[in-house]
Amino acid sequence: MKRILIAILFFNSFTCAETGKITNTEVINQTGVYCPYAEMDGHRHCFRQSQSIRVTVQLGNMKYSAEYGVGWASGLIVGDPIEATVKKNKLILTNPSGKTAKKNVVRREHVTY
């Protein structure tokens, strides 16, 4: 009986990644101010290394947002599926190239249909 309880506790400590949906991305500058980017003359403006991208992912009936580095998150496309896990106050995402990043959740939102 004790072994079964230990096995249950051991396997419950793992959090399985779900497939979420990217619902929004927005560029945030150093001061935390929203900085929309636009394509002009084939170039993206308002993208600097000192900025981050706030990525919002929907998992079930919740949306979670966290800020990731421009290099890591620049290939993400709104509407695409993404592997995601929320563990305590961290949003763990795996981008299409297979790199995983773990950042603090900056916003949680219930989705109402």
% residues in beta strands: over 45%
Reading the helices and strands in chain order gives HEEEEEHEEE
Rg over alpha carbons: 17 Å
- Class by SSE composition: mainly beta
Mean pLDDT: 78
Question: How would a crystallographer describe the biggest sheet?
Answer: 6 strands, antiparallel, barrel
Count structural domains. Answer: 1
Strands in their spatial order, largest beta sheet: 1-4-5-8-7-6
Strand segment count: 8
Note the total helix count: 2
- Would you identify the regions where 5 or more consecutive residues have pLDDT less than 50? 5-14
Tell me, briefly, the overall form. globular
Determine the fraction of residues in helical runs and give it as a percent range: 10-25%
Measure the end-to-end span.
44 Å
Describe the overall structure.
With 113 residues, the protein is mostly beta strands. The chain has one domain (17-110). It is built from two helices and eight strands, in the order αβββββαβββ.
Short summary of the structure?
With 113 residues, the chain is mostly beta strands.
What's the helix and strand layout?
Blueprint: H1 2-12, E1 18-28, E2 39-40, E3 43-44, E4 52-59, E5 62-69, H2 70-73, E6 81-87, E7 90-94, E8 100-110
Antiparallel strand pairs: 1-4, 1-6, 2-3, 4-5, 5-8, 6-7, 7-8
